[in-house]
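Lab notebook, bench 4. Continuing the backlog of folding jobs that were queued last week. Each job is logged with the same field layout so the records can be merged later without manual cleanup. Today's entry covers 3-dehydroquinate dehydratase, a 147-residue chain. Filled in by technician R.K.

JOB TYPE: sequence-to-structure
TARGET: 3-dehydroquinate dehydratase
LENGTH: 147
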Amino acid sequence: MKILIINGPNLNMLGKREPDVYGKNTLEDLEYSIKQTFKDTIDFEFFQSNHEGCIIDKLHEANCNFDGIIINPGAFTHYSYAIADAIKSISTKVVEVHISNVHKREEFRQKSVTASACIGQITGFGFYGYILGVNAIINCEVGIGEK
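JOB STATUS: finished
OUTPUT FIELD FOLLOWS
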């Protein structure tokens, strides 16, 4: 099984940016944790970009080359209809993940324009949310008309 993990803007600053919200661990720590949890069972590719177009290109390239995609669109969550459309344009299952509980934060963070393009959204469980997302891809049977 192959799964792509996409992290959006500012997630390269994990461990430095607002550690009271996002924790003290880095993006490299996150990637290591995911690989260790599923070692020898899943082939992961990791991608991070601060640029919307690069994320869209990666989604297009990933179509049918992965069994699933975990995406944390970062701030693009709240306004990138382009990323939402890119997710809708591919047949690969996509799960949206957020480290913090966005529903307990500022009002603008509580709306996701990308979540409805995904098979589901996981929010508020820290790095463990990515593990939950991978398990969702492994175990989720999608219904008729869904990804």
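OBSERVATION: The first strand starts at residue 2 and ends at 7.
SIGNED: R.K.
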